Structure formats: structure tokens, C-alpha cells
Amino acid sequence: MDWTELENECGGCRKCRLWETRHNVVIGRGSRTAPVMFVGEGPGEQEDLTGQPFVGAAGQLLDKYLAASGISMDDVYIANIVKCRPPENRNPREDEEEACIDYLRAQVKLIRPKLIACLGKVAASKLMKPDYPIVREHGILIKKGAFSMIALFHPAAILRDPSKKEDMYYDMKKIREFLDDLKK
Ligand code: URA
After folding, report:
1. How far is the CA of 120 from the centre of ligand 1 (A)?
2. Residue 117's closest CA among 171, 49, 70?
3. Distance of CA 56 from the midpoint of ligand 1 (Å)
4. Burial (Cβ within 10 Å: 0-12, 13-18, ≥19) of residue 118
């Protein structure tokens, strides 16, 4: 599947019920040759309205962390587990994740990132291991097949609980160091 096919398929997707309430399908933003791919859970209100991932309050905080850690947007692509907004920002359901996951797989195949960084428990539980213990295991870099993986707190969790800020900064620095090593 190439990018145009992916965009066309996602644009007309009715594989789960989320199409009924969406305004826009939210595929991704950033560099299509990025070494680091961030994956969140699903679009919120602003993302649904604009068609861009992580543009609301949590997304703005994510961008601040990237900038503060010296991670260039040229090195980053940002996507989600599900491409349509779950009503009232509830977590995506298992059947919705399953219906959507092939689109994310296609994105990973096209981008071929070196590192996949899961933002929050929902993404980490889908991509790394079930019921991922994010509080205990955030910031731990693991190797999985062709790429490395790491889970970070979701930026919305940092907004709710500022005591997680330092951990978030530390984990972002790990990603920055990973990028630095790639460029050595
Ligand atoms: N939260 C997410 O998980 N993804 C977005 O795109 C926005 C908020």
C-alpha cells in the first residue's frame, strides 16, 4: 500500500462504527522518513475537527517536550492506534483497535522507523504487551523485531498530573539520545 492508497482507504473507512460520528479521519503528521514514530491512542475533538493528530492541549504539550529535548520535527512522525475520534474521548474499544490496526501497520511499513514511542497505556498495551504497566515501565527501551520500542506517559496524563513532568522529560531525553546514536 502506498500513501495515496492509505489516504483513500482511511478516508472512506467504515470498518468500525467510529465513522458515524467523525468529522475527519486523522492519519498522521510529520516526516514520512522519520526515524521515530510516536503513537497515541486516538483523535480528540481538535484532531477530529482539523484532521491532524495531537494538535489540542495534549499535542501542544507534546510539541513543547520535543522542542525542549532537542528533537527535530524532521525526525518525527505522529499517529494514533485508531484514526477516528471515539465519542466523548473514551478509550478506543478492542474491536475498534483491531479494525484500525492494519492502517498503522501500513504506516510503519512505509515509514520504517527505527523507534516506535507509545504515548500512554492504551498504545503501549496494543503495541508492546497487554495491560502495559506504564507507571513502572515507562522509559524502558526494548528491541522488538526490526525496531526499538519505548512507552512514555500520554501528554494528557502530564496535564492531569504535573508530578509526572520530570519523568516525561527524562524519557524524551532517552529518545533524543537514541537519535543522537543513530547519527553517530
Ligand atoms: N490524544 C491522542 O491520543 N491522540 C491525539 O491525536 C490527540 C490526543
Report:
1. 10
2. 171
3. 8
4. buried
- Which atom of ligand 1 lies closest to the CA of 53? 6
- CATH class of residue range 3-179: alpha beta
Which atom, in ligand 1's list, is nearest to the CA of 46?
7
- CA-nearest of 151, 179, 178 to 167 is 151
pLDDT tens track of the chain, all 184 residues? 999 999 999 999 999 999 999 999 999 999 999 999 999 999 999 999 999 999 999 999 999 999 999 999 999 999 999 999 999 999 999 999 999 999 999 999 999 999 999 999 999 999 999 999 999 999 999 999 889 999 999 999 999 999 999 999 999 999 999 999 999 9
- How far is 154 from 138, CA to CA, in rounded Å? 10
User: What kind and span of H or E run contains 150?
Assistant: strand 147-152
- Can you tell me the distance from the alpha carbon of 98 to that of 178, in angstroms, rounded to the nearest whole number? 30
Run of H or E residues at 173: helix 165-182
Question: How many A from CA of 49 to the centre of ligand 1?
Answer: 12
CB 148 within 8 A of CB 142: yes
* Sequence ranges of the domains in the chain: 3-179
